[in-house]
């Protein structure tokens, strides 16, 4: 499933129109929502906080959504994050889990 399909499915599941979602993330018109859903426009990272909030993503869903956006739309940036922060690195996950327990 593409980022656009995921975005559309989530919006529809929440019974939100494109105009409502557009206004919730700071746009006046729904055109940009349709463009993001169709894949003709990238999801702007600066709108990501408003978007995941409007779509009601949990913290884990937010991380997975951002990861998917970066993989699909900004692969060079995803590669940098992956190399720098060990995304998908089992040892990193264990360290994060241990630190949370303290």
TrEMBL record:
Sequence intervals crossing the membrane: none
Stored Gene3D superfamilies: lambda repressor-like DNA-binding domains (1.10.260.40)
SUPFAM superfamilies assigned to the protein according to its UniProt record, in alphabetical order: lambda repressor-like DNA-binding domains
MF terms in GO: DNA binding
Protein name per its UniProtKB record: HTH cro/C1-type domain-containing protein
Species per Swiss-Prot/TrEMBL record: marine sediment metagenome
